[in-house]
Design a protein that fits this description.
Structural class: alpha/beta
Largest sheet: 7 strands, mixed
Shape: globular
Radius of gyration: 23 Å
Number of helices: 16
Length: 471
């Protein structure tokens, strides 16, 4: 393996275009690098190349493809610190905490997990008259469009299972975070055959060219519900297969037997992982009257011990919002809470002269369930804490929104937690944790949070076509 990508400068130089568009560090406003801007014509070229090599890639054995995925994971680990530094500079997330180094580690872990999965034929019927088996074949060319919040990790979520199953992939990263994804692909492509995995940076027009392309057999998209709906309309014309992981507004419900001090840290990071910029982060927390003040106090204490600042400084575990648009959304929703008379426990007042898109860690108490900060997805470092006196009411509140990605239940009695979890409308419900995704465990949304599954054997099936063979 080449070693010229194992330093930050070498990694950046491999993807930097001196004539490209500037990318600014959202923590400092300084130039990180410059990205080339792809075009719909580049999508045509990439898709044609991916189609040309797909049959050869699929003809390799599953073991051969797994070996290359494991070697790609080794390459990521060899360049891990450089990748984390570039990610921190471009996205804003700190190196430490559940952030940049964590994300790079997850990239390697997801590659290794997919390399280990084997989707064997399933025997459906085997009697004296009929034997039927369900096999899975590659779907062909996968077009993947990723987000800016976890740009590297979610790209791997898309391309690792696709490559494992013998597909080729054309990837379009978010225009906010294209450098980190291009760098990741440059590292991985040291091991893969040419044109099996291609990244084309660009704006929304480039993404639309990919998702509407006749040469793309499967679309994977992580992002907003509105964009997912547009992709689905376009895909209908050619009946392309789709996996959509869209917005969420995850609810957490604390039960009366919970221990506030014991759960405070996990509650906090369930909400504030990646500074709240996570689809499956906890965005609203329901707490019973009997524990309300204790939970609020415990969360304030954790917040005080979680420094926010420039990501490349080792002491920080919370960072800026990635872009001005998202900063404005968080500021608007917190202001709506303040205007309504809700009680701000900590945060809520940005420092005007501070560079970067920093919004302080904000906890809001005594807030109505219909307040915009509760009803809309904030996608940032602000958590509303809603008081309840009736558990059935809390469950109804948790279920009343039109999204359903994740949810969580917090308590000491596991059976009681499971009983509540069964009543929540979400693709995933965690008990005494939140957002704890696992490459072995399927993950997806319900309602307007999308459809289709990622991860595990079910994730492999989603990037395959079923083929029943009977005799």
């Amino acid at each position: 393996m080449s070693t010229d990508l194992t330093t930050f400068a070498g990694l950046l130089s491999s993807v930097d275009d001196p004539n490209g568009r500037e990318l600014l560090d959202p923590a400092t406003g300084e130039v990180v690098g410059r990205t080339r801007e792809g075009s719909p014509a580049d999508i045509d070229t990439a898709v044609a190349a991916a189609r040309k090599v797909q049959s050869d890639w699929a003809a390799r054995t599953s073991a051969e493809r797994s070996e290359l995925l494991n070697k790609a994971a080794d390459a990521i680990e060899a360049s891990a610190e450089a990748l984390a530094e570039l990610l921190s500079s471009e996205q804003g997330k700190p190196l430490n905490g559940p952030n940049a180094r964590f994300e790079v580690g997850a990239c390697a872990a997801w590659l290794r997990a997919n390399a280990a999965f084997e989707l064997e034929p399933e025997v459906l019927v085997d009697d004296e008259e009929t034997h039927a088996e369900l096999h899975y074949a590659p779907v062909g060319v996968v077009g993947a469009v990723g987000p800016w919040n976890w740009p590297m990790m979610i790209s791997v979520w898309q391309f690792a299972p696709s490559l494992k199953m013998g597909n080729t992939v054309v990837l379009k990263p978010s225009e906010y975070t294209p450098l980190s994804v291009q760098a990741l692909v440059a590292v991985v492509n040291q091991l893969l055959p040419a044109d099996v995995l291609t990244v084309v940076p660009g704006d929304g027009a480039v993404g639309a060219a990919l998702t509407s392309h006749d040469g793309v057999d499967k679309i994977m998209f992580t992002g907003s519900t509105k964009t997912g709906q547009a992709i689905m309309r376009t895909a209908a014309d050619k009946l392309a297969r789709i996996t959509l992981e869209l917005g969420g507004n995850d609810a957490g419900i604390v039960l009366e037997d919970a221990d506030p001090a014991a759960i405070a840290g996990d509650l906090f990071w369930g909400a504030f992982i990646n500074t709240g910029q996570t689809c499956a982060a906890m965005k609203r927390l329901y707490v019973p009257d009997s524990l309300y003040d204790q939970v609020c106090d415990a969360l304030v204490e954790v917040a005080a011990q979680s420094p926010m600042g420039v990501g490349l400084k080792e002491e920080n575990v919370l960072g800026p919002l990635q872009n001005k648009q998202q900063y404005d959304i968080v500021a608007r929703l917190v202001q709506a809470a303040k205007d309504s008379g809700a009680r701000v426990l900590t945060g809520g007042d940005p420092v005007a002269e501070q560079p970067g898109y920093f919004y302080p860690t904000t906890l809001v108490a005594d807030i109505d369930n219909d307040n915009p900060l509760v009803a809309e997805e904030q996608f940032g470092p602000a958590l509303p804490i809603i008081r309840y006196s009736d558990l059935d009411q809390a469950i109804a509140w948790a279920n009343e929104l039109e999204v359903g990605l994740g949810s969580s239940v917090w308590g000491s009695d596991l059976d009681a937690c499971k009983s509540v979890a069964a009543r929540l409308q979400a693709g995933s419900t965690w008990i005494n944790k939140h957002g704890a995704v696992d490459p072995r465990v399927p993950f997806g949304g319900v309602k307007k949070s999308g459809f289709g599954l990622e991860f595990g054997l079910e994730g492999l099936k989603q990037v395959s076509v079923p083929h029943v063979i009977s005799w």
